Amino acid sequence: TMHLMEGELPTSMSGSCGASINGKLYIFGGFDDKGYSNRVLYYFILESLEIKYCCCSFRLIYFGGYGCRKHNELSDCFDVHDAFWEGQIFWGWHNDVHVFDTNTQTWSQPAIRGGEPPQPRAAHTCAVLGNKGYIFGGRVLQTRMNDLHCLNLDTWTWSGRISISGEKPKDRSWHTLTPIGDDRLFLFGGLSSDNVPLSDGWIHNISTNGWKQLTHLPKSRPRLWHTACLGKEGEVMVFGGSKDDLHFMDTGHCSDLLIFQTQPYSLLRLCLDCIGKNAALLKNQIPCLPSKLLQQVLKKITFWAAVNHRQERKAETERQGQLNST
Description:
alpha+beta; 5-stranded antiparallel beta sheet; 326 residues; Neuraminidase; 3 helices; 15% helix
């Protein structure tokens, strides 16, 4: 559902990142027609959109990325990509950690107290499990990576490159990493070192430090530069992005939603889906349901009716295409 927003709206941007904390959606950075941005914008979403949240944190933690520094700020943790000698501004990749306090709306840079940090990079992905932040992959200069690092968010110490047992995902950038449960991370998509859009999915278990590839995913739905989030019942929902390498083809923008089930659905969910799919057969019994349950059933009926309508339109379009080709 599209919602009209009020207040100070951001310009059309790419490369921004966002997170929801305590009923507010925070958006940071990105690139628009005026160049790079370091602004933080937030929107109230809890009351107006009735979104539930489970995060009680008050801080946003950012790692790495592409940005600028002055000449006297250059260090070994900054890889220069371009320079403007007028004003001595240098652009490149870094591996800094910055924290935005949502209560005071102030920035700080914590002192890293130990461990070997990841190399400066961009187009990586981050995820938080408990008090630890995980970094996977991304682009280091002209090389895409498949390394996994962990930052303790209490002691501010890096793990160094985590040793992986068994097989592991190939190098990539522009992918997503989503926490599922208390000890697992779901990796999906991205762009490989060969500039091939990826459609593979992996689950990493932080207890065993092992990756497991999901073999049942369709290979015809690659994604890069997409977004991903965890649903109420453990499903990972992927939206947007592109199915093509944006460096060479800027036509494969995606608007469909991919849903990956990572655990069995609840009995209630299975029953609601069954009723929603067979509403015509159960039309005499549905009104007899308790009012609270009836509202959930009606939502499922509406959802599956819309799904069926889209499938019928798609099938009709394909039939017309076949007729026109003959």
